[in-house]
Design a protein that fits this description.
The protein is mainly α and about 90 residues long. The chain is about 80% helix and about 0% strand. The chain has five helices and no strands. Helix 1 runs antiparallel to helix 2 and helix 1 runs antiparallel to helix 5.
Length: about 90
């Protein structure tokens, strides 16, 4: 993966974190699509698995504490990917 790919994945994770933290359930189809794209790459999936584990966005939306945990960990994952090459 190139540096730009890591930065794009980090940007997507920041968007996901924002939407999840705000509880925007109408964004769930887009969140699922972005989440599957991020986890389709082996390098980015390794980072998200480390921070978030096996939690799916569909599950996290149903529970407020889990949703906020998911948002926080997605934000941490985005920071890790953003600084991958710096």
């Amino acid at each position: 993966m190139t540096r730009i790919d890591y930065l794009n994945a980090a940007s997507d994770l920041r968007r996901i974190a924002n939407w999840m933290a705000r509880g925007q359930k109408e964004k769930l189809p887009l969140i699922i699509k972005l989440w599957s794209q991020i986890n389709s790459q082996k390098e980015t999936a390794r980072v998200t698995d480390h921070f978030i584990g096996n939690i799916k966005p569909q599950e996290a939306v149903k529970n407020k504490r889990l949703r906020l945990f998911f948002a926080e960990q997605a934000l941490l994952s985005s920071l890790r990917l953003q600084h991958k090459y710096f």
